[in-house]
């Protein structure tokens, strides 16, 4: 059974592009022609793939004004894993993963799930946390790209390991709140990140 489930996830280039589209612009309803335009694939291939994804419970569709609109279902069993997959291959996360050596020596980097779901942030929320020796102009350039793409401000925070460890030990309320939120790790291990917090 598990084997079949994995096949739902990775079938074709078209499926991968559709997942990247749906999960990098969440909560959006897409019309088939708009999907075709955005993923630059043949309409029949897109329709076929959408049919499969609907059968697997990945997407749902509804009719509005004579058009069938599709959206991704957050209840889908592998939603969080797929969100992680897309977070690490597109947008800001993809940029950080791909260029991590240019960004310095990064020990941990994560994006908040709330940010990936494009839920509006409160003033205290942190979308991106990076711990390590950071080359700031490179990080600022990556963030600026994403801000332009989203047309929204990104709250990010960075610090070296010594400061991070110190703040965790001191039970700094800011850092604890940032760490306990649902997150997708881009670099480093979540267990290790939270070691000092849970202890």
In short:
This protein is an alpha+beta fold. Helix content is 51%, strand content 20%.
Describe the protein's architecture and organization.
This protein is an alpha+beta fold and 199 residues long. The chain has helices at 2-9, 13-24, 32-39, 43-55, 79-87, 91-98, 113-116, 136-150, 161-169, 173-180, 190-193, 195-198; strands spanning 30-31, 59-64, 67-72, 104-112, 128-134, 156-159, 183-187. The strands form two sheets. The protein has a four-stranded mixed sheet with strand order 6-5-4-7. The chain has a three-stranded antiparallel sheet with strand order 1-3-2. Helix 2 crosses helix 5 and helix 6 (91-98) packs antiparallel against helix 8. The longest helix is centred in the C-terminal third of the chain and has 15 residues, at 136-150. It is elongated, with a radius of gyration of 19 Å. The termini are far apart.
Topology:
Elements: H1 2-9, H2 13-24, E1 30-31, H3 32-39, H4 43-55, E2 59-64, E3 67-72, H5 79-87, H6 91-98, E4 104-112, H7 113-116, E5 128-134, H8 136-150, E6 156-159, H9 161-169, H10 173-180, E7 183-187, H11 190-193, H12 195-198
Parallel strand pairs: 5-6
Antiparallel strand pairs: 1-3, 2-3, 4-5, 4-7
> What percent strand?
15-25%
Based on the structure, what is the oligomeric state of the protein chains?
single chain
Arrangement of strands in the largest sheet: 6-5-4-7
The total strand number stands at: 7
Summed over residues and divided by their number, the pLDDT gives a mean of 88
Count of alpha/pi helices: 12
Class inferred from helices and paired strands: alpha+beta
Tell the overall outline. elongated
- Which percent range fits the helix content? 40-55%
* Largest sheet properties: 4 strands, mixed
